[in-house]
């Protein structure tokens, strides 16, 4: 493990660490007038940028005594806890956070559609796409960190979404188990070491979707910190035509390049690169 990765202590990944019980939760509060003023100022200017975002977010929560905030974002609700999670900072301060990626996926997932989110965290992609899929659609959200899955389920409940299937599991090319590791002390950046022992289940994407009863995939997002080739390539190569997503958003390891296994698999299955954002590459299949 590189020096910037370290084991994530059990107190951080345990689902028992989720603050506030139930969708309403006794510990949340709307922003105070002062908090809202700071949020509005940041959203309107340069303070929403990444270099300032964490500091401003911490100040917002400090002004409220550290209490969680329920924040609306793209028509859904997130309970933000002010912890070590870069995704929370983006949701709090930037209404256009990852907008290009989300809008691209929305082009494939309409009412009744099916979206799969591998590396879902608290639901940045899952919840807006679940809302677009509607009551007859499905969203399958997968994350190796059980704490993030508990928070995602709570956010889905707060948003009135009953079509989200949340699964606490790592995804790879085989079945097994492993240990969690965190990078840069940020709960949003978590990976699994496939040790063969440990509390985190490791499953294939095909098996997870079969267990969830999924027979069609319209859109897929994957961001699992370098495990993309092991997780996605076997799925694409074995998938029936209806299981091949129309659109895929995938984290790229460096600007202008994608994971080699996924790049080759995309070519085999008729995907074309339609664009790149700061962190992700956008792929479409066929004429979509």
Structure report:
The structure is a single chain. The termini are far apart. It is globular and about 55 Å long. The chain has 2 domains: 7-93, no CATH class; 99-285, Rossmann fold. It is of the alpha/beta class and 288 residues long. β4, α6 (126-133) and β5 (138-143) form a beta-alpha-beta unit. A 7-stranded mixed β-sheet has the order 6-5-4-11-12-14-13, with helices on both faces. Strands 1, 7, 8, 9 and 10 form a 5-stranded mixed β-sheet that branches. The chain has a two-stranded antiparallel ribbon with strand order 2-3. Helix content is 32%, strand content 25%. The chain has helices at 10-13, 33-43, 50-63, 86-93, 99-106, 126-133, 146-158, 205-211, 228-238, 260-268; strands spanning 5-7, 69-73, 76-80, 114-118, 138-143, 164-168, 170-171, 176-183, 186-193, 200-203, 219-222, 247-251, 271-276, 280-285. α2 (33-43) runs antiparallel to α3, α3 (50-63) crosses α4 (86-93) and α9 (228-238) runs parallel beside α10.
